[in-house]
Amino acid sequence: MMTHLTLIVPFSVPPGAGDDGRDDVIPGALLRQLELPALGKLLTRATPGPRERHDDPFLRSLPQERWLAGKTGLDTGRVPSAPYMRLADSGATAPAPDGQAWACLQPVHIHAARDHLVLMPPAHLGIRQDEAAALHAAIDPLLRESGIALQTPCPSRWYLPEAVFGPLEATTPLRAAGRNIDIWMQAGERARDWRRVQNEIQMTWFDHPVNQAREARGELPVNSVWLYGGGALQAVPRLADTVLSDDPFLAGLALAAGSRVLPVPAGLAGVAAPGGSVLAMLELAAEAHITEDWGLWIERMHALDADWFAPALEALAAGGIDAVTLVLGGENHFAEFTVTRADLRKFWRGMGQRGDWRALLSDLAFAA
């Protein structure tokens, strides 16, 4: 029997009125169109857990990254995601922490808007192995001249020792995606050195045959790199016996702690029946939220309710799961809720203001 199911659901909260200067029209309209009966029952019966409250709209990490960092004893202010992503991308068993700090160098596309630059979501690129090899070869002389030993364990994420540019204030690409990148650029004592190398890479790739071929196929060119996630691998506690994740940071944390790591299935029905605890990162609604495709976001949230929340509620009621924890995130905050089988019998929690799950989501959207 599954003892505990934790579902991390990034970008499952509609935007708040304060996000990017929005008024309250979009959040209100989205909440009225959502039909999430299973999530609603879980939320209104649950006991609230830790909740992020702050009024800083420019935190450089994602809410789910800060939740994971907090649960594993890592720095939540400057989340050291790179060494764990490197572990996941290399497919190796977790080494003993050796103090070596790494940063992630991610090939990206930066789009020139009318009066500013916009970082596109990295997943849109779909860089192939042969493309990554050719692009790396093109900048290898530049890297060697700068004393940079680059590791390329997968096409979409590369790694270099953090000491090359020193600790920088850096932003997770998905946090900056779709926005003017001016305020999200790397900052620190050696940020100028980093910017010089970034500019030279951009010039090298500007008219590269890989990008010519990509543009001919109607694909985005790979025209820049983004540096982030610096830090050293540390011993971390186990988040769950089994972790279902396509996110490299979470997968790396799980590998470092000795958990079993599997891809995320289409729904809870696709999870093999392991004993012990299970944690899943459900990112189905993330891209629609980031690109502000609200019709698609509503569809994805409805799919999550049907494929994950409803089966979890059913298993909880039937005794197949002892407890369910939901970690819901918006653009800038997270909140945790835990519900047990006994909580489902507390019908009075579903009455009055507490029983309004839309009000709960609205409150999370405006969290501060």
Automatic annotation (TrEMBL):
User: Entry's InterPro entries?
Assistant: Regulatory_RpfE
Q: What is this protein called?
A: Regulatory protein, RpfE type
